[in-house]
Design goal:
The chain is mostly helical and 153 residues long. It is built from seven helices and two strands; from the N terminus they run H-H-H-H-H-H-E-E-H.
Length: 153
């Protein structure tokens, strides 16, 4: 994945450089920068890919970081998400039911804001506190009770 991303950015930066073809000086600089970026990426892949294929350092590091109780194919929530998600939900907690209803054309925005039960794109909800292991109902910083369409925009 990492090495594929390196090659992918090489294609992207070359396409961006071609966007400067109207000005010769800018095009020369953009294409030169893209070429240097490409060579760095290709040399990184040519160096790291054989090392990964022979010694498997990325696989070994990943296996060492993964908890023993997670089997192959299981969904695993990393430690960073466990700590950041509760803090983010105290700032904004998206009302995903409303978003799904509008995206699937089950309801329109006008219908949602007319219904007092599902008003607003931000909702209160249970938030896990990683410091003491408890859950509490928290309204985020940007929550407004019975929000109107103008409040959410």
């Amino acid at each position: 994945v990492i090495m594929g991303a390196n090659i992918g950015t090489s294609v992207t930066n070359t396409l961006v450089a071609f966007g400067q073809f109207n000005n010769d000086d800018e095009f020369e600089r953009a294409f030169s920068g893209a070429t240097v970026h490409d060579m760095f990426n290709f040399l990184s892949v040519f160096t790291l890919l054989p090392i990964e294929l022979i010694f498997h350092p990325l696989q070994l590091i990943t296996d060492a970081m993964k908890p023993d109780d997670v089997a192959d194919g299981d969904k695993w929530e990393g430690p960073i998400k466990q700590w950041v998600a509760p803090l983010a939900k105290r700032v904004i907690n998206a009302n995903k039911d409303v978003i799904k209803n509008v995206a699937s054309a089950t309801a329109t925005c006008e219908e949602i804001y007319a219904d007092s039960d599902q008003k607003g794109l931000i909702k209160c909800g249970d938030v896990y506190n990683p410091f003491d292991g408890t859950e509490s109902n928290v309204c985020p910083l940007f929550y407004k009770d019975n929000a109107s369409k103008a409040d959410d925009m």
